Amino acid sequence: MNVKDISDQGPLWEVFIQSKSGIPHKHAGSLHAPDAEMALTAARDVYTRRGEGVSLWVVQSNSITATTESDSESFFDPADDKVYRHPTFYTVPEGVKYL
Amino acid sequence: MSRDQALIEYLIRLGDNALIIGQRLGEWCGHAHQLESDIALTNIALDNIGQCRLLLSEAGQIEGKNRTENDLAFFRDEKDFRNSLLVEQPNENFGHTILRQYFYDVFQFYLYSALKSSGNEFLSGFAAKSLKEVSYHRKLSSDWILRLGDGTSESHLKMVEALEYLWPFTFELFEMNEIDATLMAENWVPDLSEIEKKWRNEVEAHLSEATLEIPDTMGYKATGSRKGHHTEYLGFLLAEMQAVPRSMPGAKW
Known about the structure:
The complex is a heterodimer.
Chain A: E1 12-18, E2 26-32, H1 36-47, E3 55-60, H2 72-76
Antiparallel strand pairs in A: 1-2, 1-3
Chain B: H1 3-26, H2 35-63, H3 69-74, H4 85-88, H5 94-115, H6 121-149, H7 153-166, H8 178-185, H9 192-209, H10 232-247
Helix pairs in contact in B: 1-2, 1-8, 2-6, 5-6, 5-7, 5-9
């Protein structure tokens, strides 16, 4: 990937931390670094000083494609009236384990 | 020299290195070129202060004169400090600080790797615990050396200047005296000439990868710290570091 300088501090990176093995990485914040490897070390120093994680991902911010405010009606509103899509809508029969 | 006396001196040597480089790195707090580096440098500072506390406390305990880590850090004078001249050199600029750190990190890495199998229980335990921190410091400073040395023409030039200034201070890290001889006989500490070989292999290869040439110092090697002879910079550092505990002895948070 072509890492272009977007400020005098280097490009912006988004940091994702996995707090325990097996569970998903969660977004923790962002930082500036000249390249991916340095972004990882910076992420270690800025976001995992207190034992927050066991694994780190960094992604250059400009490679993330995001929805915009104007998308939100068509993207998210249709789900508002479909409560049956939540598992809590259904009664769990007695005696069922591991749900 | 008795075995205990030599061990106290050795612990003070290691402890003073960690203390002084920790203090120097702490000076960057709030001043680095970006928040990320500010935090990275002060993290390394705190790791070193942590190591220093273990080392000086142990030295005080073996000595048995009720001197605590604080007594040793804040109430000794310049001539009693045994840190190498390298770590007391001023920060100058970020590249200069990183190069000083790199030399020290690689030294610490090989020294602690060897101390891990020390016959002395404190030294081996200390080294095993601290090596994890030091391995990270070494990675961080190595990464920066490549990027600054082989970076822009300005960063390269700054690294060349830093290298010319700091290179003569690297030899002293490996100087040995009676303390080393006494403890080597016990199998407690490594032969520093072995550490020097590993250090030199790694540093020479890495600097060359970073397009940096080792300067010709015309045989000049800075020396003196093993006897308490320091450069002019240590006194100022100590004055700042020791001012509060000396003006208010026994003050507590």
